[in-house]
Write a structure and sequence with these properties.
Pfam families: TetR_N. One of its GO terms (molecular function) is DNA binding. There is one protein chain. This protein has 204 residues and is mostly helical. The chain has a single domain, classed as Orthogonal Bundle (Tetracycline Repressor, domain 2), CATH 1.10.357.10. It has 9 helices and no strands.
């Protein structure tokens, strides 16, 4: 793993019971298929094979279950990504950034995953609760990752913006190649060679 990432830990996974884990798995699958708003707690409990009473005992409300699902997804993705980077120690910034973009593309090829946080934000951003905070925390974590890889705050922020924009193009615009194209520009920015390719970041 690049030395700059040694202090970057994944967001914590929710602590729960076996019944809670079954509810998280069922809810996560249903949210991916149907959306968060369209999925009721009755259906989640039915798919998990667990009573609705147990669902409320474990999570208290649907919003807390949504937040726990997102926290688990964030944890799983970040652990996977850090393992990928750990397998490629001492790579230069441009290659590390390419690795992250490639990992994201592979991760989102699974229809059960997709861009979980982008889709969730569209449904929970107006709600001042845990779920929206988890999405924001995941985005902030990715920003810290790219800043660490680039070794420069401005370049890292630009790479992060390219990454999030490419995710949106893939999810909403149906453009699966967007991450590959964005990766090339992001790698040049991270490697400090963007000026030679007609890309000149604007100082704020």
């Amino acid at each position: 793993m690049p030395a700059a990432l040694e202090d970057l830990m994944p967001l914590p996974a929710p602590r729960t019971t076996p019944a809670g884990a079954a509810l998280l798995e069922a809810a996560s699958s249903l949210f991916a298929q149907r959306g968060i708003t369209a999925t009721g707690v009755d259906l989640i409990a039915q798919h998990a094979g667990i009573t609705k009473r147990t669902l409320y005992q474990r999570f208290g409300a649907k919003e807390a279950l949504v937040a726990a699902c997102l926290a688990q997804r964030a944890h799983d993705w970040q652990v996977h990504l850090l393992e990928e980077l750990d397998a490629a120690p001492a790579v230069p910034p441009d290659q590390a950034v390419r690795l992250v973009f490639a990992a994201a593309r592979e991760w989102t090829r699974d229809p059960r995953r997709g861009c979980t946080f982008l889709g969730a934000w569209a449904e929970v951003s107006a709600l001042p609760g845990e779920a929206a905070q988890v999405v924001q925390a995941e985005k902030a974590w990715m920003r810290r990752l790219f800043v660490a890889l680039a070794g420069d705050a401005r370049r890292g922020e630009l790479v992060h913006q390219l990454y999030e924009g490419a995710q949106m193009c893939a999810a909403i615009g149906g453009d699966p190649e967007s991450l590959d194209r964005a990766a090339e520009v992001a790698a040049r920015i991270a490697g400090g060679t963007d000026a030679g390719h007609g890309f000149s970041p604007i100082d704020g």
